[in-house]
Amino acid sequence: xxxxxxxxxxxxxxxxxxxxxxxxxxxxxxxxxxxxxxxxxxxxxxxxxxxxxxxxxxxxxxxxxxxxxxxxxxxxxxxxxxxxxxxxxxxxxxxxxxxxxxxxxxxxxxxxxxxxxxxxxxxxxxxxxxxxxxxxxxxxxxxxxxxxxxxxxxxxxxxxxxxxxxxxxxxxxxxxxxxxxxxxxxxxxxxxxxxxxx
Length: 198
Description:
- By secondary structure, the chain is of the alpha/beta class.
- Helices cover 15% and strands 33% of the residues.
- 37% of the residues are buried.
C-alpha cells in the first residue's frame, strides 16, 4: 500500500511539473534545486522568491488531507522578499509576503497554515475607507530552523518562531516564540519547554 501511494504521488508530481515550472518561471522564482511540488501552486505577485534544496510543497488535498487547506497559495508582491531554505516542507498553506518572510532550514509548515507579514489593511477605519490611505503595516516574519507549525495555524506580521519550537494546531501567533518551546492557542501562549531528544 505504501508503495502504491508513493507511485501515485510520483505520477501527480510528473503531470503537474510543467505547469509549476512555467508558473514559477513567469513569476521569476529562483531555486537551488527545483522543489518537489504535488499539485498545482497558486502564485501571485512579482516579488523576490528564493528556494533552497530539497523543498517539498503539497498543493492538493490528495497528498495531505490532515487539515483545512486544499492548495498552496504564495503571494509575494513587488517589494516582497520570500526565502525558503533547504529541507522545508509546506502543505496546502497560504503565504502572503509584502515585506520579508524567511522560512529557515528544516521547518515544517502544516496543512492549512497562513503566514502574513502584513496587516493587509490599515488599522484605522477612516484610513480603510480610502484606497489611498488604506496602507497596512508590514514587518518581517522568521520561521526558525527545524520548527513545526501545526495545521491550521496563523503566523502574524513581525513574529519570529525560534529554532526547533512547535506551534500547536489552530494557533494564532502574534508575538515571538523562543527556541525549544511549545506554544498553542488563540492567542498562542507558552505551554512547555522541549527537552533534548535522545
